[in-house]
Amino acid sequence: ARAVRGLLLDVSGVLYDSGADGGVPIAGSAEALRRIKAAGLKLQLCTNETQATRENFVKKLRALGFDISVAEVTAPAPAACRLLKERGLRPHLLVHDDLIPEFAEVDKTNPNCVVLGDAAENFTYANLNEAFRLLIGMEKPVLISLGKGRYYKETDGLKLDVGAYMKALEYACDVQAEVVGKPAKRFFESALAELGVPPEQ
Amino acid sequence: ARAVRGLLLDVSGVLYDSGADGGVPIAGSAEALRRIKAAGLKLQLCTNETQATRENFVKKLRALGFDISVAEVTAPAPAACRLLKERGLRPHLLVHDDLIPEFAEVDKTNPNCVVLGDAAENFTYANLNEAFRLLIGMEKPVLISLGKGRYYKETDGLKLDVGAYMKALEYACDVQAEVVGKPAKRFFESALAELGVPPEQ
To answer: In sequence order, which ranges of chain B are alpha helices (DSSP H)?
Structure first.
């Protein structure tokens, strides 16, 4: 008989509610996390967070009372870095300033692809035109999108998410973006690989 | 036998090449326009120009040597105004500053639709979020787009056109925009109505 040996958990809306103020923990979630670990189950947090490095994301969650480590977080940016390396791709980044350190080790000279994240305030007319011009100028445009969310809620209201800007560039360049992050199958598979547990367990 | 009695002509790329400097006439086009009129043919210029009122657009073309009048120009904004009036729609405008006077007569209080044009520098993160929030908050979101171009060239390089931003809002709100302007059939029909000539002539 197959027993459950590990869990993939979402973060935003499961462990805490996000917001410009850093967010608030959801009642009982820190205790639930403790019990999962006490029961000997492995745990991997699967998030589409792309407004901060994993290090800072974990720092924030720990401050909110969650006992987690960087290795227990699967996020789009590190997954994108692996993909870039595998395929010899050099990205032009249109992402949030706080995410840029995740790409520190990646060669970004003479870009042959565009990586799009939830750039928030960096989604300016000039930055979008720049990403578009690079893409349309490529022999074979490669657009990698860190998620494809439509929108999300912050304390000051709804915000367009990366998926909307992905669609704008897809249409302008007549390309299909490669999505890294939920709900891409490959993303969950890499979370399972990090967990060290097969899908059926 | 049916004779040709009127012509619909494009403007940008046919009469002149546009640019931040006002553009340059295409060789022979002013003379061709004169001959068409001298031959007694009716003429309607069909443009997707949405960065200026028709008045200013015509002023610019006249300065470039073209003998045309405002009545000879069919453009998306006046067509959108007719549509808004017919359906009792009150728009929130995300358009170029120079186009706003075209909507002077339209009730814009308590918006129940969004009108999207090539807003250029007005395509800011804040303005896009504002248009999105209004749309998603409507019981039945109505998005009217003045054209659906992918991009266009200016003297300082390629720019994303209104169609890209239309796709972003369509995706975020799960709606389909109503396109006013080329290539919408309705737009050509209204140009023909203004010309006073049936399609087959």
So the answer is: 29-38, 54-63, 76-87, 125-136, 162-173, 185-195
In a domain, B201, yes or no: no
Please answer yes or no on whether B133 and A158 come within 8 Å at the CB atom: yes
Asked whether the beta carbons of residue B163 and residue A150 sit closer than 8 angstroms, the reply is: no
Report residue B125's pLDDT band, with 50, 70 and 90 as the boundaries: very high
Residue A35 structure tokens:
């019990």
Q: What range does the domain containing B139 cover?
A: 76-179
Using DSSP, state whether A111 is helix, strand or coil.
coil
Of A24, A51, A26, A6, nearest to A147 (Cα)? A51
Q: Is the dihedral of CA B88, B91, B96, B98 positive or negative?
A: positive
Q: Which of A79-93, A113-127, B17-31 has the lowest mean pLDDT?
A: B17-31
Residue A96 confidence class, pLDDT cut points 50, 70, 90: very high
Q: Are A36 and A129 contained in the same domain?
A: no
- Would you say residue B37 lies in a domain? yes
Same domain, yes or no: A80 and A155: yes
CB < 8 Å to A160, chain B? 128-129, 132, 168, 172
pTM comes to 0.90
According to DSSP H, which parts of A124-161 are helical? 125-136
Contact A125 B128 (CB under 8 A): no
pLDDT tens per residue, range B145-193 = 999 999 988 877 899 999 999 999 999 999 999 999 988 998 998 888 8
CA distance A99 to B150: 29
* B contact test, residue of A128, A133, A152 with most B CBs within 10 A: A128
Residue A190 maps to a domain: yes
ipTM of this complex: 0.90
How far apart are alpha carbons A154 and A24 in whole angstroms?
12
Q: Which residues of A touch B132 (CB under 8 A)?
A: 151, 158, 160, 164
Segments of chain A assigned E as strands: 6-9, 16-17, 24-25, 42-46, 73-74, 91-94, 113-116, 143-146, 151-154, 157-160, 178-180
Contact B164 A171 (CB under 8 A): yes
